[in-house]
Structures are given as structure tokens and as C-alpha cells.
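Page 42, continued from yesterday. The earlier attempt failed because a stray header line got pasted into the input along with the sequence. Redoing it now with the clean sequence only.
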Amino acid sequence: MPDPSFTTAAELASAYRSRKISPVEVTRALLDHVEARDQFIDSFLTVTSDRAMADARTAEQQFMRGEDHSPMQGIPYGLKDIIETAGIRTTGQSRSLSRHVPAQDAAVAARLAAAGGVLIGKNTTWEFAHGGAAWDVVGPPAHNPWNPEHHPAGSSSGTGAAIAAGFITTGIGTDTGGSVRMPAAACGIAGLKPTYGRISRRGIFPNSFSHDHAGPMARNSRDVAMMLQVIAGYDPADPGSADVAVPDYLAGLNGDMRGMRVGVPWDWLDEAECSEGTLAALKDALQILEGLGASIIAVKLPSLQAFSDSKKTIAMSELFSIHSKTLRETPELLGASLRYRIQCGALIRAEDYLRAMRLRTHLSGAMQAVFNTVDLIACPCAEPAGRLQKATPDGLFNKKSFTTPFNSTGNPAISVNMGFSPEGLPYSLQIAGRLFEEASVLRAADAYECAAGWLNHHPALFSEPLLDTV
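This time it went through. C-alpha cells are written below.
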């Protein structure tokens, strides 16, 4: 069996059950990989070596006793450092919480622990999942494993980078405007923003109450499905949680898209001034989807600008309500970029907030109407990653995003690898679906990944195995 750094969760699960490899061997190899190479990308704030080995030994003993609790048993994962972990420092990358050690696990952390997962550590983020790349926070920003001079996007930056580098097999990020999908896009992996309410956010530092989602990230969409199976479900302690049945996400991953209608909002590509490289990669991807049996249909949606205006007005107001006390009492403990973004929320009137909420209702209605005519929507997730540099204040306002619309409407959306630019940085395909139909999104993403053939590409700096065989 190859070095476990780039072995998928599904492959590990099979190897564990056939006794070809043990969770202890895999965990030790990954911890060695992190120790030797994370210095190049800073994807971890905290490496939980002792906890990881204890989790791995427990999983190994369970397999030896013939106990099979879940698809995540023995699978290594990381958690974005806004997800609380009992007894383990959780900082949000902010000096204001540099010594914060929670007493309880967040809901997703508890579910993964109960499922027998192996926690490798807490991953780098933007400050409170919002501040942008910064050097005046708890630790340095993460770098992109494909080229460490480039960024891994955000705000689930460390989780995306760690998976792409082979440090962890799976991870959990959060997504308020694209913060699971954009790091997945930048790092050439898979990342799912589920339907709003599908995964509990209890114990996760909030960013925007009405737009926040937690979501699984992994090397491919099949592994994302495995993880979603464990963490999805109703939580009465989260006011936004939805009491909706959780289906079998793996059952439909059969490589078949026959009968599926895929809408493409071509106007969005013009509005965002999509690059020629990204447009060409998208057209190639759509041809693959057609070859798998899907019908490609042009659809008309409200402008990206309308979605952006609504989301940013609402989210900035909610961000200020969350952090105003810290801003007033200890502003020096917040990074400059986050301070600026919090202050913007103080300038928004209640009238503006309510108008933005009414616009959001209109936009969501328009989105769901389109989903009455198609099963899925496909478009790029983002352009290839640019250079890693300090976040600028205007960066909050001057970018049109392909990801934000699905936060506004709550629809599930995934980003998967769509090839590589001439500079060797990943292109990304975003596939969105109807509310609570993550299964259809995952079916299409898995079929595309298997047909496109990008899954075996890994960053050169990190792909040299630490072990010849295990």
C-alpha cells in the first residue's frame, strides 16, 4: 500500500477492515509528515499528537475486536480553529482568544470523536473566519501547497492546505460566503457547503448567524460523502438546525448522470469577467458531464452583484453584533484587517439590514425557481489562487463571488478540482443543488471526478513519501 499521505478515506477504511494497515501506522506517518513539512505552509496552529495517537490506538483496538462503528473510524481529520474542542486550545487565530481552552466539544467535533475519527490538530484560519490573510494575529497565514508563494484562499485556509499537502485525510471548515469551497478550489480538493441547517454549528465561533455553514473537506467528493454521513443531522441546540432526515450519501455514487439537468448561468461568467483559462476548463468539464449523460441548459439568475450586496450588508451587521464588545474594550487584540471589517458593520442602519433581508428573500425565490427547471447548477468556484499577501480593506467589497449566492439561498454546493492552470495551480468546478439534495450534488461531483482524472495529482513539494511502504 502507498504512503498514507495521499490515500483517500475510502481506501483507508477498506485497508483497515482487511487488516492491511492500522490506524496507528497511518497516524504516526501523518504526524511525521506534518512535523517535517508543515513549516513550508503553516497549515496547523495546534498539532494534537497525543490525542491523535490515543484516538488511533482506540480505533485499532476496535477493529481488532471486530467492532465497526462508522465509516470515519480510524480516519485522520483536522478542525478549523474556530471549532471548539474540549481541553484543546481554540483561538480563532485571534490574540483576543489566544489562551481560550473550551470545556466542551462543538457538535461536529463530538460527532467525529464518537465516530472514531483521529484528530490530528487544529487548522489555521483567517481571524474569526473573516479577517483575511494577516500577520498580526496568533500565527502566520497558511500557504498554498501547490506553490507556497500563493494563498490557499480562506477562511478555511489551513484545512484546505493540510488536505492538499497530505497532512490530513479529511477536515471540517466553515462557509459564510465561500470559506469551505474557495480553499477547496485553491488547493485542488473537494469541499462541500451543505444546505443551511444540515450540519449543527453549535460550538463554532459565529461569523454571520444567518449565513454560516459548517462543511466537510477531503481529497475527493466520495470522502466528503463519508464525512457528511457522520456529521449531518438535527441538533435542537442550534437554532438554525433543520429537522430533516439524513439519506445515505454513498448509495448514489455510481458514476451515472443520465437524466440529470445541469444549468449554467453564463451571465455570471461575463459579469465576473471570467478568465479565458477558467472558461476553457469549465467548457471541458461540461463536455465531461454531457458524456456522463447530463443535459446542459443555460439558465438566468439574478446578478452576482445583487447577491453580494444583500449578503455583505447582512453579514457585516451581524459581524459587528458579535464582536462589538471586543472592538470597544480591547481593540488592540484584534488584527487590523478584522477591526476594519467589524467597524463597517457599525455604519449599517436597521433600515439597510431589513432591505437586504427582503432582497435576500427575493433572490432565494429566484434561485429556487430555477431549480424547478434543472437539477443542478454548474459554474466555476473561483479563479486560480493569487499571490499570498496582506489583506487590504477594499478586498471585502470589490470582488464578485461565484460562491456567495448559495450562502444567501442556503442551497448545497461543492467545489472539486477542474484541472490546472499553466502555472500549475488548480482550476475549480462548483456544482450546486436543490435544498437538502446534497446526495445529487455528491453524485454529480463524484461522477465528474472519476471521469476527469485529476484525483491523482498532488503538490510536488509534499508528494515524496516519508515511508516507502506501510
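Notes: The radius of gyration is 21 Å.
Reminder to self: strip header lines before submitting.
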